[in-house]
Automatic annotation (TrEMBL):
This is XK-related protein. GO terms for biological process: apoptotic process involved in development; engulfment of apoptotic cell; phosphatidylserine exposure on apoptotic cell surface. Keywords: Cell membrane, Membrane, Transmembrane, Transmembrane helix. InterPro entries: XK-rel (IPR018629), XK-related_scramblase (IPR050895). GO terms for cellular component: plasma membrane. Signal peptide: none annotated. Its main location: membrane. PANTHER family: XK-RELATED PROTEIN. Residues 442-461 are annotated as: Disordered. The lineage of its organism: Eukaryota, Metazoa, Ecdysozoa, Arthropoda, Hexapoda. The chain crosses the membrane at residues 22-47, 59-80, 100-117, 185-206, 487-507, 513-531, 543-564, 570-589, 601-623. It comes from the Eukaryota. It is found in: Cell membrane; Membrane.
Length: 637
């Protein structure tokens, strides 16, 4: 398996080198995430200090709580998962080390995140110094992509720290009398801007995660054992299109098609096998080499048009009967002088007279054997000539009608089985909670022992058709390249800017209607999630679905549930959010009481960011979206 499997190998359709893949996929994004994390964490800590200095302990404690919240939720999620604990039950050294590591991440989470980013940067640079397909390159890439609990903390930071922190600081900035302390305002603006970048980074990375997960991508915070088992299971149970074509390439050999053996058997019976034909060809070559070879003399006058026209066929004026007479006559009785004289053209020409004579003799024999139909009469105005005795009773009896073969209706049964299989697959996909054993075609043992069914051989005759075998496929999605991620990142930054500014400003003027709008949106997202997972997911993750609906208040990403109708989800969600943002913008801009130029600036910023986000999404969907990745399910597993 390639170390860079799953990494985009082209940018805008042009293939790139492996070092370029490492730089654009690992090194540049990690450096960007590290810079954003350092600035965001530092700005939030400074905001807490400024709130304490300004005599606002409530805002200070609330800001500090939001800083610690992702780390606490990450710790609770890891500790409450039984698969992450050591296998041995009891308090031993491994259990103590497990608890100590997670408590250290909980307390010193900024340093743990910095260590994770620095480690990935180091191994990304290390991978650049090794050649392609070398052991050092594979080891470095493995270190870059190894899983860590810090990735879960980084994911939760976008929705438990950046999103609420952004709304809180925007609300404080838009209140009356908040522009007095210049230092506090500067730090708050920096925090809001980098919160946008943090959320956009996470949303871009996990945009279509479930579609990428089914074809090889793993959760970056899973245990190493889980990731390794996931990769082994995927390699064992599936195969790519390239490997499937390499292992099971369609062949014209007699064994690949049930019809071909009969055809090839007849061919070999007439012309011999391949080895016999080779030996016969070798014998012919030796015989030809021993016999005098007929040569064609090519000289300068061969290319003279006037001399080439002088060549005439010696039998050009002979009839077929004369040719037969000349060939069948003895050699001594042939009058050589009676043959036509022709001027030599300087080249020896070999005429296939023997073949022509044989054909003429066969035609003469055929005409002599069909004397009964040679004399025809034209006694009517029919379009064709009717021979005498055309309606007479044949002299020989007609041959018996061949009996119907056993495999005569094989092709009909094949099509019938295909239609039944498609109908069953459609019912299983569309109808939820089918009764158990509804489509089980195995008969009970008692009935099978009593019934004596005739055994039909699998060998088919020439009347049967050969259809390609039906294979189950898994259709996923490849990861985005650098250009696609950049355009999608800009689109989500503009989308979040429009969303956060519109609802935060609406909360300043109409707080009650704000909670009503957010509550209705939240309930609608829960209903959509439950409707989406009714067929292919279990309704046991109620608490997680509540958190997922909270994420859908700000953005949409395919995480933990796979969308069946992806286009319907994204078009509907973006249309709904645009409608809400326009409605809130119209309400607070026309009914709100404000005098500052700041709100006019926010009004035009919301409109511009919404238009840019829609353009980025359309451009990404039309030109930069990743291709589908198809895996074949191995039937022998």
């Amino acid at each position: 398996m390639d170390a860079l499997d799953g990494v985009p190998r082209s940018v805008l359709g042009y293939p790139v080198k492996t070092r370029t893949q490492i730089v654009m996929t690992f090194l540049v994004p990690v450096i960007f995430e590290l810079m954003v994390y350092i600035v965001l964490t530092t700005a939030d800590i400074l905001i807490t200090v400024e709130h304490f200095r300004n005599g606002n302990p409530t805002w200070a404690w609330f800001t500090l709580t939001l800083i610690w919240l992702p780390s606490v939720v990450c710790f609770c999620s890891i500790v409450s998962t039984p698969e992450r604990w050591p296998e041995q039950i009891g308090c031993d050294e491994r259990t103590g080390r497990f608890l100590f590591n997670n408590v250290a991440i909980l307390v010193f989470f900024p340093f743990a995140a910095l260590y994770r980013f620095s480690r990935r940067i180091f191994w990304s640079v290390e991978a650049l110094f090794h050649d392609k397909n070398s052991y050092g390159r594979a080891q470095a890439v493995t270190k870059i992509t190894e899983t860590s609990p810090c990735e879960l903390y980084h994911f939760l930071q976008a929705f438990l720290q950046a999103a609420p922190q952004m709304m809180l600081q925007l609300y404080i900035l838009l209140r009356d009398g908040t522009f007095r302390n210049y230092d506090t305002v500067t730090v708050q603006v920096i925090s809001v801007v980098f919160s946008f970048l943090t959320m956009a980074t996470i949303i871009t990375s996990y945009q279509r995660f479930e579609s990428q997960k089914i074809v090889g991508r793993c959760y970056p915070w899973s245990t190493p054992e889980q990731a390794s088992e996931r990769r082994k299971e995927l390699l064992r149970s599936t195969s790519t299109a390239e490997s499937a074509l390499a292992t099971k390439t369609p062949s014209i050999a007699p064994e690949s098609d049930p019809i071909v053996p009969n055809i090839m058997r007849n061919f070999y019976s007439r012309y011999g096998s391949e080895g016999e034909r080779e030996s016969t060809a070798n014998e012919r070559e030796t015989a030809v080499s021993s016999s005098p070879r007929k040569t064609l003399n090519v000289n300068a006058f061969n290319f003279d048009r006037q001399q080439s026209k002088a060549h005439q066929d010696p039998f050009v004026n002979f009839t077929d009967d004369d040719k037969l007479h000349e060939i069948s006559a003895p050699a001594d009785s042939v009058d050589r002088e009676s043959l036509p004289k022709f001027r030599p053209s300087g080249r020896s020409v070999s005429f296939k007279l023997r073949d022509t004579i044989e054909e003429l003799q066969e035609m003469d024999y055929y005409l002599r054997s069909t004397e009964d139909i040679r004399y025809v009469t034209d006694d009517n105005d029919d379009e064709y000539l009717k021979p005498d005795g055309f309606d007479a009773v044949p002299k020989k009896p007609a041959p018996p009608t061949p009996e119907a073969a056993a495999g005569m209706f094989h092709r009909v049964s094949v099509f019938r089985n295909m239609l039944l299989f498609n109908a069953e697959a459609f019912i299983k996909e569309k109808v939820p909670r089918l009764p158990e054993g509804m489509f089980e075609h195995t008969e009970p043992k008692q009935q099978t022992t009593r019934k004596m069914t005739p055994v039909v051989s699998d060998q088919t005759d020439g009347d049967a058709i050969s259809l390609p075998s039906r294979r189950q496929t898994i259709v996923g999605l490849e990861q985005d390249d650098m250009v696609g991620k950049t355009v999608l990142f800009i689109g989500w930054v503009m989308f979040l800017l429009m969303r956060m500014l519109s609802i935060s400003t609406f909360y300043v003027f109409f707080p009650l209607y704000f909670w009503m709008l957010v509550g209705n949106h939240y309930l609608l997202m829960i209903a959509c999630i439950v409707y989406e997972v009714r067929l292919h997911e279990k309704l046991e993750r109620y608490f997680f679905y509540l958190f997922l609906a909270y994420m859908y208040v700000f953005s949409l990403l395919e995480f933990k549930i796979r969308f069946i109708h992806v286009r319907t989800w994204y078009v509907g969600y973006i249309g709904l959010v645009l409608l809400e943002n326009v409605a809130t913008l119209v309400l607070w801009f026309n009914l709100g009481a404000f005098e500052s130029w700041w709100f006019y600036f926010l009004h035009y910023t919301i409109i511009a960011s919404g238009a840019l986000s829609v353009l980025c999404f359309l451009f990404y969907y039309a030109f930069l979206r990743p291709k589908d990745k198809v895996l074949f399910v191995n039937e022998d597993v």
